[in-house]
């Protein structure tokens, strides 16, 4: 069993490009099935002002797109330009 605090603030890496997307800031839960539906990733950007013009500050990644949860990072398969 994994707790939210173990994945919170882990770096999220796009497996296709090897680039850092951001870090886990929250999760989306289905209250009826009691399962995690997605992770909410706070986008990483060294220039916070540029992030406002580049797109939304958060990215919702469905649970199906998570490849693996490692000790330090979470690898995901997403199609996005970051």
From TrEMBL:
It comes from Longibaculum muris. SUPFAM superfamilies: PRC-barrel domain (SSF50346). Residues 2-78 form the PRC-barrel domain. Transmembrane segments: none annotated. This is YlmC/YmxH family sporulation protein. InterPro entries: PRC-brl_dom, PRC_barrel-like_sf, Spore_YlmC/YmxH. Pfam families: PRC.
């Amino acid at each position: 069993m994994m707790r939210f605090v173990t994945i919170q603030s882990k770096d999220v890496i796009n497996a296709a490009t090897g680039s850092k997307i951001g870090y886990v800031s929250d999760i989306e839960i289905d209250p009826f099935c009691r399962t995690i539906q997605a992770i909410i990733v706070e986008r990483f950007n060294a220039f916070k002002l540029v992030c406002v013009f580049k797109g939304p500050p958060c990215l919702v990644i469905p649970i199906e797109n998570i490849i693996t949860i490692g000790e330090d990072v979470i690898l995901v398969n997403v199609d996005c330009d970051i």
